[in-house]
Amino acid sequence: MTTPVNGIVVAEITAALDALYPQETAESWDRVGLVLGRPERPVRRALLVVDCVPATIAEAVAADAQMIIAHHPLLLRGVSSVAPTDYKGRAVHDLIEAGIALYVAHTNADVADPGVSDALARRLELENLRPLHPTAPGASTGIGRVGNLRGVMTLAEFTAYAADRLPETVWGVRAAGDPNRTVITVAVSGGAGDSYLADATAAGADVYLTADLRHHPASEHLAGDGPALVDAAHWATERPWLDLVAAALGADLGLDTIVSDVVTDPWTLHAARTGLER
């Protein structure tokens, strides 16, 4: 944590985040920016999370944080009520009653330079980064990143390496492709990334690491001689970005930040076949 600085208010943090992740770069369907909190309210400490859920709200309360900065929107779709009779309504009430502001940077953080996929690429120590799906030709912004490993690995070695470098989850890391395939050029995209399988192929990647890969798109991609695939937990591919945000806010504002390591990946059990008959 950095040393707290008196006098920082919600509006200053919002302005700093908007400069890093301009709201106009978010997808049209997305809902980003300040969600809750009076702009003039002071903030001594902020909690950085992937998901604003009951567990991370409780973490913010216990840490005496006055603001949560989240990646995923709490209110992505329109609502006609925030009555505390459902999960999201209760979350809104809990935040307001605890005096905690909420700010979201989602797809605008995905395309930023540096953004979500830069942080993921840095965890893997990739070099010579470029966008996987640039926002415009020649731009440094865009979805995903493509880079090179510092040395050559097999797919099996890279899968184990990724599992060691990413935050641990029950989901873990799984791969599709020849275990002995040579891996040098790596494409990554934090979060759900099977919309960019063709981009990974076009980029000349040996492997594409992302999350939430679906059966049919993955199968068809591999049948078409696309790069090998590594599928990690959604939360694990986006958690590294929180460190990047914390460093930026500490440098820009001297804000006291806590990065949440509460695993909000929904999967809590993983079993392999034991071979035992029941």
TrEMBL record:
Keywords: Metal-binding
Keyword Nucleotide-binding among UniProt keywords: no
Recorded GO CC terms: cytoplasm
InterPro entries: DUF34/NIF3 (IPR002678), DUF34/NIF3_sf (IPR036069)
Molecular function, one GO term: metal ion binding
Pfam families: DUF34_NIF3
Residues forming coiled coils: none
Top-rank taxon: Bacteria
Residue sites binding a divalent metal cation per the record: H71, H72, D110, H234, E238
Alphabetical list of PANTHER family matching this protein: GTP CYCLOHYDROLASE 1 TYPE 2 HOMOLOG (PTHR13799:SF14), NGG1 INTERACTING FACTOR 3 (PTHR13799)
The family this protein is said to belong to: Belongs to the GTP cyclohydrolase I type 2/NIF3 family.
Subunit (UniProt): Homohexamer.
Identification of the protein by name: GTP cyclohydrolase 1 type 2 homolog
Native source organism of the sequence: Phytomonospora endophytica
